Amino acid sequence: MILGIDIGGTSSKFGLVDDGRVIARARIATTGHANDHAFADALAQEARQLAAAHGSAITSVGIGAPNANQLTGIIEMAPNLPWKHDVPLARMLSDRLSAPATLGNDANAAALGEWRYGAGRGIADLLVVTLGTGVGSGFIVNDRLVLGSAGNAGEVGHMTLIPGGRSCTCGRRGCVEAYVSIRGMLATYTEEGGTANVNDVKGLADLAHANDPAARRVFARSAEWLAIALANAVCTTGPRRIVLFGGIARNGDLLMAPLRDHFHASLLNIYQGRVDLTVSALPDDDAALLGAAALGTI
Ligand SMILES: [Zn+2]
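Above: the input record for the complex with zinc ion. Below: its predicted structure, written as tokens.
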């Protein structure tokens, strides 16, 4: 049985995954442990208990975490986790659970989850883009996740969209993430003269459905910007399919309808008709665990 683990800033979820389904799940606090070793001890113990309660053994482990380097198996000084040093979590859990363990960053886990269990199943060349607080992405080429020379390939969110544009969390200006993340869309709402008190994408969608003109323009402009970013990304690895993940993509046709139009209009001619754009079909609650588990299958 594969153990999938999703390390988060306050709690870490884990679950047993069989044939693309999470059959048992639990969570422990990420914070409040004496150190990273105590955290790994507690996590391993709870995971063993979960497996024993279901009469199964853990055969492999996949771990999704922020700032995780898949090449080294190390979480590198993640700002939102309690440990301010490198944590070799793959080895620590592999030792404790006597099973091979693979660590990867959240966006790559999401990409593998879609490829193994979701809307990218059977697609050898795939791009998965997660739209949320930030914009993450993972490229699969010839049925392999692209890691790059340092384990950090696939940062569509930090491709420059508008030279000299809005400042980004990475310290640069004009990145895709500064425009089509939740934060970016809220900034667009203000720029477009929106006056309603809104702090999430659902709120923006509700306003757009209620014909708030600024909110409607947010979706129209975000679709244009994202279309350019995706059409540019297609030029790098030629994916057959792009899967969008996250609440931003799940607002019916508000984003997706104009996005499809702009995307096809922006695509290089040799890719026309050869790349489709779809939304993740993985269940929200289990997507991170399935992604983590997919890391345990490679
Ligand atoms: Zn950036």
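Notes for the reader.
The mean pLDDT is 95.
The first strand starts at residue 2 and ends at 7.
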